[in-house]
Amino acid sequence: MIIETNSPLPHHPRPIIVIGAGGIVNDAHLPAYKLAGFWVTGIYDVDREKALRTAEKFDIPLVYLHPEDMLDRSPRSVVFDIAVPGSQILPVLRQLPEGSCVLLQKPMGDDLAMAREIVDLVRTKKMTAGVNFQLRYAPFINAARYIIGQGLIGELIDMEINVNVYTPWHLWRFLYSLPRVEILYHSIHYIDLVRSFFGNPDSIYAKTFQHPGMPELASVRTSIIMDYGPTIRANILTNHTHDFGLQEQHAYIKFEGTRGAIKIKLGLLMNYPEGVPDGFQYCIAQKDKPPVWKTLDIAGSWFPHAFIGSMAQIMLAAEGAIPKPDNSVEDAIHTMACVEAAYESSAQGGIRPSF
Ligand SMILES: NC(=O)c1ccc[n+]([C@@H]2O[C@H](COP(=O)([O-])OP(=O)(O)OC[C@H]3O[C@@H](n4cnc5c(N)ncnc54)[C@H](O)[C@@H]3O)[C@@H](O)[C@H]2O)c1
Question: Residues 334-343: what's their mean pLDDT?
């Protein structure tokens, strides 16, 4: 059996202008585009030094001094790759010409209200726009989607994302001052992933937690149930404060169907930032035989390979190969609505038992 792990690619890749030269652009966007053969023609950052350093590292020919230069000198077919903090997305989008093609970094604004403003602006300016919820396009997720799509594990009835790791939050100082952290910046990927398999949930139950040793962070652990009715279970459990060595850390995505299961180990999150190897195992039940788990070796990982797929969606829509990106802002706003519901559920609390 040949299992597809690659994301669909455009026939005619478009040039890219990157806006924002921060950590994620250097660690994932640009390495991914290099792998895919996408051409980055220019870069702009309010911090010019960062733009210059990044341009030198990745051989980007143009560093723009001002946003206007970027607009004056951009080829018409360009895709703007916006990787700035969520609060800066709207001001940057307002500067771009009508009809632009854009990929926005997640989160899609700071909350659902801002996400709605982004959708309105994109519609008014007739842009082709998507959000970088790239876990959907990680090679191991492509493989799982292929196996599930072929019906090999039967009907999908269970997804569990379970993360018990130590995350060095001090690497992202900007999170310290924010009212929303774990769900908006991390579990959002899993909410989006679950939606990409099961669609929109009927409701969300959630509680997000602080840690007594990290009072400066609004939340670092979360439990979420995405409710799809009586037979589908979709759970997200994250604990980023397991500071007791690698031995008992784990991070996995498990899919269970009526006739089999898939378990993916997210090596990137363990022993962060060094990581450990990913893992992909699956079991397809055979009648009257004991279950056998098989291992699949998958080339590539979540970072940076998944970032090829999210950019490719914008290019595919721009060349007319698909009507709109799979990660379009119109789809991504539903993930933002789930995030909002999760925070509301957490604030509201559960049902009090009558003791
Ligand atoms: N999809 C993912 O998996 C993923 C992973 C990490 C980060 N992110 C998101 O990407 C965004 C950036 O994260 P980062 O870690 O690179 O942060 P960072 O702070 O390292 O970089 C952000 C960059 O944006 C620049 N910037 C800010 N406002 C700007 C503006 N108006 N115009 C041009 N440049 C501007 C800053 O100078 C900085 O260089 C965040 O929203 C973060 O949540 C997404």
Answer: 98
Report CA-CA distances (Å) from 139 to 8, 131, 301: 11, 18, 6
Task: Indicate the average pLDDT of the chain.
Answer: 96
- Are 38 and 106 part of one and the same domain? yes
Does residue 125 sit in the same domain as residue 172? no
225 shares a domain with 143: yes
Dihedral sign from CA coordinates of 307, 312, 317, 322: negative
* 253 inside domain: yes
Mean pLDDT of 259-286: 96
- What is the whole-number distance in angstroms between the Cα of residue 204 and the centre of ligand 1? 28
Residue 191 structural domain: 136-295
Between vectors from CA 18 to CA 91 and to CA 16, what angle results, nearest 5°?
Answer: 120
Report the CATH number at residue 91. 3.40.50.720
Mean pLDDT of 37-44: 97
Among residues 71, 100, 134, the one where a domain terminates is 134
- Give ligand 1 pocket residues (Cβ under 6 A): 19-25, 44-47, 50, 83-86, 88, 91-92, 105-106, 132, 134, 174, 185
CA distances (Å), origin 239, targets 159, 164, 224, 307: 17, 5, 12, 25
Q: Cα-atom radius of gyration of the chain, to the nearest Å?
A: 21
Q: Examine the fold and report which residue of 245, 265, 295 is the final residue of a domain before the chain moves on.
A: 295
Which atom of ligand 1 is nearest to 25's Cα?
A: 16
Judgement on whether residues 143 and 129 belong to the same structural domain of the protein? no
Distance 83 CA to ligand 1 centre (A): 5
Q: Which of 81, 84, 188, 336 to mutate to test the pocket of ligand 1 (most atoms within 8 A of CB)?
A: 84
pTM above 0.90, yes or no: yes
For residue 38, the CA-to-ligand 1 centroid distance in Å is 20
Question: Which tokens go with 297?
Answer: 């070796």
117 with 162, same domain? no
Q: Is residue 341 part of a domain?
A: no
The owner of tokens 């690698």 is: 246
Is 86 or 344 the better-scoring residue by pLDDT? 344
Write the residue with the smallest CA distance to atom 19 of ligand 1: 22
Ligand 1, atom 40: nearest CA belongs to which residue?
85
157-214 per-position pLDDT tens digit: 999 999 999 999 988 888 998 999 999 999 999 999 999 999 999 999 999 999 999 9
Judge if 145 and 273 occupy the same domain: yes
Cα(257) to centroid of ligand 1, in Å? 37
Q: For 285-305, how does the pLDDT look when each residue is reduced to its tens digit (9 = 90+)?
A: 999 999 999 999 999 999 999
